[in-house]
Structure formats: C-alpha cells, structure tokens
Amino acid sequence: MDPPDLVPRLLAGDEALFGTVVERWQPGLLRLAESLTGSRATAEEVIQETWVSVLRSLWTFEGRSSLRTWISRVCVHTALARVRQEDRSPVAGGPDIDPARFDDRGAWVDPPARWSEETPETLAARREVLDCIRRAVVGLPVRQRAVITLRDVQGFSSDEACEILGVTEVHQRVLLHRARTRVRSECEQFYREAA
Amino acid sequence: MLRCSEFVEHVTAVDEGAASASLRFWFQVHRLECVRCRRYLRQMRAVRGAMSHLDAEGQTSPRTGHA
Questions:
Q1: Residue A25: CATH number of its domain
Q2: Which residue in A has a C-alpha nearest to residue B38's C-alpha?
Q3: Cβ of B22 under 8 Å from any chain A Cβ?
C-alpha cells in the first residue's frame, strides 16, 4: 500500500514527489497504454492526458485502492476512449478452441503437440516466441488485451484488474480465459510452423 | 467426470482459484489420467509465465525498480 502521506503531499503540491511518482510508474503505464492502443505515439499522448487527469482529479481519490491502481484506471479509461469502436463488443458465448479438435464425446482428435520449450523461462528465452506472444496480445480484442496485459504482463491482481477496468470478477475471468487461450493457440501455430 | 473439451474450458477458473470443490476434484482426476490435457495445461501455464517477461524485456522505456 501507499505511504499514508503520499496523496496529501501530492495534493499540497509537492512537485519533487510528483516527479518521483511519474518516474516510478511512467514506464509501466506507457507499456500498458501501448499495449491497449497498439501505437507508441498514441500511448505517449494517452500518458500525457493521464497525468493531467490525475492532477485534476486527485482530490477525488478516496484511497479505496492503491494510488498506482487508481492511476492505472485513469490510464486504461483514457486509452480505451481512443479505441472505443471495437470496445463495445459483448462477450460472445461459445468455445475458445476449435470444436473440431474434439470428437463428439469431447476427447481430443487433434491433441496439442509437444513443444521444444514448455516452461516460462525456456519460452521467454526464445526471442521468436516472445515476439509471437507480443503479436498475439496486440491482436486480441481490446478488453481481452487490457485484462491479459494487466494480469499476466504487468502482474496486477484479479481484484486490481477488476477495479481498473470496472468489470466484475466473472467477466474479468472470462476475458482472461479467452485471451490466454488465444495466446497459447498462437504459440501452438508458431511451433507447428517451426516444426 | 470431465471431458477433454471441458477441461480446457476450466483451466483459468481452476488456476484463478475460482472453481468449485467438485470441479477442482474432477479437474485433478482428469489431469492425472489424460496426458494430452496435462500437456495443454503445461503449455497454458508456460505461456502465461512467459508473458511477465514482456514487461521486463525491451521496448524503449527505461527500467525502473517496481516497488
């Protein structure tokens, strides 16, 4: 949690402290915004807008979440406003994996093949795999992209991700599941082509 | 009993600690007896774990210590 005097000192205009906060959180926020908007330039605009909004509305901060979570929420909302057109798609039902991969009793007919790397460390050690994962994340619908970036890339908790995105826990989990499933499928495709 | 097609749909619920006790039970039973789903689960978890390296590595921003 934040030190208790963090927000009061920011509200009192402690510029050095504000500078420290910006320096500490800017890189993560920038990656978050870049992941959501798919563009470095747009992400930089989003971040500028975010800090302005933060300064303008800091007095409304009630401390129910950490300041970092609250600022991330401002950042996500600012970024999502830029990519609003694809944002309203409801969560469709239906399977995340091609149903043709299972027989009519639900058993694999096209099972997952072995990959030459199957641990986080070995996967991450291969640049092509990381690039594949990055492309897969960018290709996701924006709300899935937001959830998986917050949770799996940036390490926010489920509660924090719900708070930042303003979604229920169940909805968050559905988005996360689809996103993770899709990203694994892209890796599978990568290994099929590499074989 | 859980089928393979159901197992893959419940991976996230189980990993997020959101599965009911009975789902957790049948999930573990299926995991023990199905080598294919075991591989699927291993790959899902590996990809998820690898994603944290996206934040640490690269891009153009400077590194700062996370509190």
A1: 1.10.1740.10
A2: A112
A3: no
B27-43 pLDDT tens trace: 999 999 999 999 999 99
ipTM confidence score: 0.85
Give the closest-approach CA distance of B32 to chain A in angstroms: 15
Q: Is B53 helix (H, G, I), strand (E, B) or coil?
A: helix
Domain that holds residue A156: 99-194
User: Considering all CA atoms of chain B, what is the largest pairwise distance in Å, rounded to the nearest integer?
Assistant: 50
The whole-angstrom separation of Cα A91 and Cα A178 is 10
CB pairs under 8 A between A and B: 123
Residues A184 and A107 in one domain: yes
pTM summary value: 0.84
**CATH, residue A167:** 1.10.10.10
For the segment A52-102, what is each residue's pLDDT rounded down to a tens digit?
A: 999 999 999 988 889 999 999 999 999 988 886 555 444 444 457 888 999
C-alpha to C-alpha distance for A125 and A15, rounded to whole angstroms: 40
- DSSP state letter for A99: G
The pLDDT confidence band at residue B55, using thresholds 50, 70 and 90, is confident
Domain count across chain A: 2
Contact A133 B51 (CB under 8 A): yes
